[in-house]
Task: structure prediction
Amino acid sequence: MKLLIFILIIPCVSAGIVINEIMYNPSKEQGEDKELEWVELYSDEETNLSDFYFNNFKLEDSVVKGYFIIARNKSYFLDYYGLDLMVIEARFILSNKGGYVNLTYLNESYLVPYNNDFANGNIIMILQMVMEKLWN
Result:
């Protein structure tokens, strides 16, 4: 298995949200895409997600700090990984051939590209995208 590592750094202030990992093509042994596609993010301070959209899906009114997951299937993710992280379920589909993850706050969208040029199955794309702090 090859693993694609892509790092994108956008200039930022001291606080923000970082997209750490994108699981967009789990292996057949792990489960179906509809069960195990997810994105891991990190917030260095308490952030309310009520005005955030992930791939055009409005996120639930949650306050996050530290690592958290946006998953297609929250219960399957928790059953499979058994992690003690906040998991937010959202309706989205990630193409197995590559595409973009879109995190939007108010009128600002941040598109993070991903692709599988160097990977095959069980793809976790590790990246770092620092979003400028746009909220109070």
Q: What stands out?
A: The two ends are 42 Å apart (CA to CA). The first strand starts at residue 17 and ends at 25. Helices lie at 33-36, 74-81. The first helix runs from residue 33 to 36.
